[in-house]
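Handout, page 2. Input:
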Amino acid sequence: MAKDLSTKQRKKLSKKEFALPGKRKYPIPDKAHARNALARVAQYGTPAEQKKVKAAVKRRFPSIGKRSKMK
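Output:
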């Protein structure tokens, strides 16, 4: 589960640590927050936001969303 960000911590994040930097929405400073951003945008985001968040997460954390080959 993603650790909660305090207001102070959130304000310290750079623009590139948000999936939607112009709005400073969906912080993705680590993998846990990136997974949470994907879940939240799937629930509440518009289709355009969903596409942008997925792309931002894939750029920052390419391993998220890839299926592992389990035998």
